[in-house]
């Protein structure tokens, strides 16, 4: 059976082609493209055995061992998983590390059942190289940066725009110490691949709007050249009253929040808060979660904003003041940014 090989990496990412990644779980967990699912041809232990055999006895012996390890019901189950995915995901592709043996063997096994799907030329390595090229080129795009104090609703405003990228969504983190559990963030390679896919899917001829971020979002770092480009870009500031920002934080973070996440996050900034403020905030926070007292929550949010986040952000904003091109309310900022995107 002839094997169709696909090397349209831009099309794979832009069209969100479903990909069966047949690498081992240990390889996959280090990073993949957003539309890849891990249905390995060899599990971690099998891959280690085959790899050792390859080093000691060569490729032919390694292939024989792989065929022996993945035989009978084990092979049938894995092929069935591939077939089921391919049947429910039109345009599916096979992918391994370099588009070599594992993809080709998976293709052959699946073809024996009557299903034939192409493989990605060069595998995950080629897709990764293409993503890195897109990230490098992104520094030359036109950017607009949306800023504002904590709780201003920047993310909500960003998602209403026609040419914007939500970096925090890609990083699965809201940016601050209270932004989420870093253990739930994707690996760096997956984050960068997802960012590259987002860049490919957006209009490069128009300004691209992103939120004002630090170099890191949780434990993930923005690519150097992209971050440097954002640091030079025009800045639009969303302004909202303290009362409304407190209400936003309560509704978006606290209502369905896990108490330990908040107390742990507070502990991470204890030194910067000082012991007295830390103890005051922790007491209010614990009272709010223990008793369900909304007023206690509103008090610690108010204090945390006015004593910590606002002074810190105002200082940072002062360093960027020359880049500010517009300030306004939610509606005014939304209209202004949309106009800038449309007119270019």
From TrEMBL:
Name of the molecule in the record: Rhodanese domain-containing protein
Keywords: Selenium
Domain Rhodanese: 13-136
Signal peptide span: none
NCBIfam families noted in UniProt: PRK11784.1-2, PRK11784.1-3, tRNA_sel_U_synt
Molecular function GO terms recorded: tRNA 2-selenouridine synthase activity
Classification via InterPro entries: AAA_SelU, Rhodanese-like_dom, Rhodanese-like_dom_sf, SelU
GO terms for biological process, alphabetical: tRNA wobble uridine modification
Pfam families in alphabetical order: AAA_SelU, Rhodanese
């Amino acid at each position: 059976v002839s094997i169709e090989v696909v090397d349209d990496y831009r099309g794979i990412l832009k069209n969100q082609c479903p990909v069966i990644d047949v690498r081992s779980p240990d390889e996959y967990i280090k990073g993949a493209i957003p539309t890849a699912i891990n249905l390995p041809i060899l599990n971690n232990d099998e891959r280690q055995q085959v790899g050792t055999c390859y080093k000691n006895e060569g490729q032919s012996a390694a292939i024989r061992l792989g065929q022996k390890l993945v035989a009978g019901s084990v092979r049938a189950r894995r092929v069935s998983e591939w077939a089921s995915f391919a049947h429910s995901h039109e345009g599916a592709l096979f992918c391994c590390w370099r588009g070599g043996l594992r993809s080709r063997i998976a293709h052959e096994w699946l073809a024996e059942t009557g299903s034939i799907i192409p493989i990605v030329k060069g595998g995950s390595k080629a897709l990764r190289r293409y993503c890195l090229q897109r990230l490098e080129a992104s520094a030359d795009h036109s950017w607009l940066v949306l800023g504002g104090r904590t709780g201003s609703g920047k993310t909500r405003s960003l998602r209403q725009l026609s040419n914007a990228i939500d970096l925090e969504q890609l990083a699965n983190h809201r940016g601050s110490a209270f932004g989420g559990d870093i253990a739930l963030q994707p690996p760096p390679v997956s984050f960068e691949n997802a960012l590259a896919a987002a860049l490919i899917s957006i209009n490069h001829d128009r300004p691209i709007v992103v939120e004002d971020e630090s170099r890191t979002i949780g434990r993930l770092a923005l690519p150097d050249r992209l971050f440097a480009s954002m640091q030079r870009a025009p800045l639009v500031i969303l302004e909202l009253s303290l009362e409304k920002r407190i209400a936003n934080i309560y509704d978006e973070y606290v209502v369905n929040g896990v108490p330990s996440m908040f107390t742990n996050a507070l502990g991470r900034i204890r030194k910067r808060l000082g012991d007295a403020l830390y103890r005051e905030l922790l007491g209010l926070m614990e009272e709010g979660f223990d008793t369900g007292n909304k007023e206690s929550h509103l008090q610690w949010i108010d204090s945390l904003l006015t004593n910590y986040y606002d002074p810190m952000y105002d200082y940072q904003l002062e360093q960027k003041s020359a880049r500010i091109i517009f300030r306004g309310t939610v509606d005014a900022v939304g209209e202004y940014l949309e106009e800038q995107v449309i007119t270019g």
